[in-house]
Write a structure and sequence with these properties.
The protein is of the alpha/beta class and 308 residues long. 37% of the residues lie in helices and 16% in strands. The protein has a six-stranded parallel beta sheet. A three-stranded parallel beta sheet has the order 3-2-4, with helices on both faces.
């Protein structure tokens, strides 16, 4: 048996097409305004630089203005809060994203919690997260990666009603919100279990999962023998590991003299693909969808702002 591959790139393109189509109409009907996403970056982190480049390209592709606010790495927490609040009060700004990581002198959650919910493009403000608790209230926006997970599950055509779902990882941007999303319907909800670093006998839980969602950031955490046959496997992990040859030795880059690296998830894909019914690849899975969800969230904020 070989799993069907959940094509994140295809899902992302479909979402972007819908967002662009709706955005075009909204901009035509509201010529005095335009959708603007402001990214706040503190310092110059190489990984963050890649994300910014991709965000900018995706925004420009569908007609969203993308502005980067670059701040010095030595900025104090209070100064960053003041800068963030100033941007929040700017009526021309549709959405705000605070790029991670932040330097050690800054409490990231404290700053994120102060972003206005009506400009919280990442869906992580207390008000937006809190709305996930209510089955009869649809949040304006929600965490992008969590929504990406749900879109990947939805793409399989399988119903979640009553299914045993195991989520490995209980972060505020994936594990916890995904659990709430799986419980969002009174009658059609799944039966989720959330595992984390303190969970005992992880494989006991993962082997009974009809839907397995892994979001830890630890390469090779979930092996093939930990997966139920035919399960839907959603791998959210993104890890950089050394590329190895057939003998298990690192492949060295001739120019730099350093080991070549590759991107993998938390699941051992080559093993899981022979057991699962559906699986997301890494790269090309949830990560690809997440950026398109960011655009979808911004569209939701823009619609609210032009209609207010």
């Amino acid at each position: 048996m070989s799993a069907k591959i959940i094509d994140g790139n295809k899902i992302a393109e479909e979402i972007k097409f819908k967002v662009k189509s709706e955005l075009t109409v909204l901009k035509e009907n509201n010529k005095n305004t335009k959708p603007v996403l402001v990214a706040i970056q503190v310092g110059d982190n190489p990984a963050s630089r890649v994300y910014i480049k991709n965000q900018k390209a995706s925004c420009e592709e569908i007609g969203i203005e993308y502005n980067l606010k670059q701040l010095d790495n030595s900025i104090t927490e209070n100064d960053l809060i003041n800068e963030t609040q100033k941007i929040c009060k700017d009526p021309s700004v549709t959405g705000i994203i605070l790029q991670m990581p932040l330097p050690p002198q800054i409490n990231a959650k404290k700053v994120q919690m102060l972003i206005s919910p009506d400009k919280d493009v990442e869906g992580i403000s207390p008000i937006n997260l809190g709305k996930l608790l209510y089955s009869d209230i649809k949040p304006l926006v929600a965490p992008c990666t969590a929504l990406s997970v749900m879109e990947c599950i939805k793409s399989t055509g399988e119903q979640i009603k009553g299914k045993e779902v195991v989520i490995v990882g209980h972060s505020e941007i994936v594990g916890k919100p995904v659990c709430l999303m799986l419980l969002s319907s009174v009658m059609e909800s799944a039966t989720p279990t959330v595992c984390h670093i303190a969970s005992k006998e992880l494989s006991y839980h993962t082997k009974r999962a009809e839907i397995l969602i892994v979001a830890v950031g630890k390469a090779g955490l979930i092996k093939g023998n930990m997966i139920k046959e035919g399960a839907i496997v959603i791998d959210v992990g993104i890890n950089r590991v050394p590329l190895k040859d057939e003998n298990g030795n690192p492949v060295i880059d001739e120019k730099s003299g350093k080991p070549k690296m590759k991107t993998v998830g938390d699941v051992v894909f080559d093993e899981a693909v022979n057991i699962a019914g559906y699986i997301t690849p890494v790269p090309g899975g949830t990560g690809a969808v997440t950026t398109s969800i960011l655009l979808q969230n911004l569209l939701s904020l823009y619609k609210t702002q032009v209609n207010s």
